[in-house]
Amino acid sequence: MNNVQQTGARKPVIIGKQRSYHEIVDYLDQHWSVAPDLSLERTRQLDKALDAASQKVPTILVAGTNGKSLTVHFTTRLLRAEGLKVGAFSAPHILMYNERISLNNETISNKSFTEVGNKVILAAEQLTLEANSSELLTVMALQFFKENNVDVAVMEAYRGGATDPVNIIPAKVATITRVTPPNVTVSEDNLEALITEMAGIVKRGTHITSGDQNKTTLQLMQTLTEKQGGFWAMPIRKLATLPYPFEQLHGRCAALAERIAQMFVEQQLYPNTTIIADSLLSKPKGSRGRPTLEKKRELEMNPRKTIEQFWKEEISLLPGKFQILDKEKPTILLDTASNIDAFKNFLLGIRLLHYQRPLKGLTIIVGAAHNALHSEEFLKQIRYFFKKTSGQILICAVDEVVPGVDEANMWNAEQVANDIKGMKVKARACKNFEEAFDLAKKSVDERHGLVAITGSHSVVNAYWKHKGIKKF
Q: Considering only CA atoms, which of 18, 201, 238, 196 is closest in space to residue 115?
């Protein structure tokens, strides 16, 4: 039986069975089936038992339907450039649970993951809490960040906002990347409920902005923010100046990351400082008009790195989840586009690559969860794409599903392929990813062809496992 030892003024030490790394992974795999606690009471109890890390780690929360992990990635890199110690928590993973938790852009080690996993699981057992894996992982991340004294943690609200476990945190800064309905026929009431759920990350005093472009959506976000005691900042309009073709694909996520990182630095980290020396993000307050000759000479003698230079040098990919593998033969494009809006952006990416370097053969492999993509809008996008771009599409199911994603039931590959063929597009159903990938490689030019893989986290996971990669 687990028990708690208390020694003087020291924090409680929870004693019980110490699990190995693989035992913790097995435990997490099994506990996705536990129904999530939408009230967040389990997460609060667990956090409180472990010294309430949620109240002690300065945090930026990132919600939305698309672009969350990329925004977390960019924000982390920007804050690192400011010299801050930064923790990041994103979901889901592709190969290992460790991918969800990082410190200064370095994935948590197996040793640290095991130590913090044991601490959190034993605390849950002591409290007799049957916690969902999302709740456990959130508290694990908070504990890890607190123990490492991070200056800021950037955390993704993977499942909405108000009911996501990260929402036990009183965020200093927050953002909603964008809100897109699961299908194009969603009712106005249902869309409003989705926006309201995401805006639940706003607490009294939270500074929030958005990358959404819909005026009605933004107005509702602003109204909810002000009602909940938060501070609404102007939404993002520009694209960050990333190298081609990433400016068009990820420029808005990068610009949003720039805005929220700047908000944190100026309003939370150094709220009373006029000029922050050597800051990439902070702009001098109160300076208007042309700079003086003295100021010009100072800048010439001590040039500051600009945000434009940062973006030109920045890696514009999200390792594992979005990647262009140019050294592979043929070139491989990976994208975990699991909804219609993300799939549209994926097709745009292929067109932009084609403009940059004409492709000699294109095959798209799509594997998705049941009802995640298969819709009239999905078929419409494919028909439009292949009217202007030659190639074929292979539809497959995936044998092994990434834990923690809603992909347990894969689609019927034969049915989807037949629907696509009905639009005079070259399509074929494959029994698994291995068959699809083998056919795709043979169908395109080895040097100038492209095999694009998308539709779910699980199909991207299948690619890496096919390559024999066990971790990034």
A: 18
Query: Which runs of E-coded beta strand occur in 147-261?
Result: 152-156, 173-176, 207-210, 231-232
Tell me the C-alpha to C-alpha distance, in Å, between residue 380 and each of 16, 36, 56, 364, 419.
56, 35, 49, 16, 11
CB–CB of 158/92 below 8 Å? yes
Give residue-wise pLDDT tens across range 205-216: 999 999 999 999
- Which residues are paired to 154 by β-bridges? 60, 88
- 43/166 Cα distance (integer angstroms): 9
Strands (E), 277-400: 322-325, 331-335, 362-366, 392-396
Name residue 318's beta-bridge partners: 322
Q: Residue 239 has what pLDDT?
A: 93
**In terms of Cα–Cα distance, which of 97, 229, 183, 200 is closest to 376?**
183
The predicted-structure confidence for 116-167, as pLDDT tens digits, reads as follows 999 999 999 999 999 999 999 999 999 999 999 999 999 999 988 999 999 9
User: Is the predicted pLDDT of residue 245 greater than 60, yes or no?
Assistant: yes
Q: Residue 412 has which token pair?
A: 């019927």
- CA dist., res. 376 & res. 390, Å (int): 21
Q: Please give, one letter per residue, the 3-state secondary structure of 412-448.
A: CHHHHHHHHHCCCCCEEEECCHHHHHHHHHHHCCCCC
- The listed CATH number (3.40.50.1970, 3.30.450.40, 3.10.450.50, 3.40.1190.10) that belongs to domain 3-232: 3.40.1190.10
Domain residue extents for the chain: 3-232, 322-466
The closest of 260, 256, 255 to 207, measured between CA atoms, is: 260
Residue 14: its H or E element: strand 13-15
Enclosing H/E stretch for 220: helix 215-227
Domains 3-232 and 322-466 share a fold: no
Residues 6+ apart with CB under 8 A from 219: none
Given a contact cutoff of 8 angstroms between Cβ atoms, the answer to whether 317 and 324 are in contact is yes
pLDDT 10s digits, 299-344? 566 666 788 888 888 776 788 899 999 999 999 999 999 999 999 9
Triad 354, 356, 357: Cα angle to 5°: 65
**278 in the Ramachandran plot: left (φ > 0), alpha (ψ -120 to 50) or beta?**
left
Fold of 322-466: Protein-Tyrosine Phosphatase; Chain A (3.90.190)
Integer angstrom CA distances of residue 432 from 268, 408, 412, 425, 439: 50, 15, 11, 21, 11
Instruction: Return the biggest CA–CA distance within the chain.
Output: 76
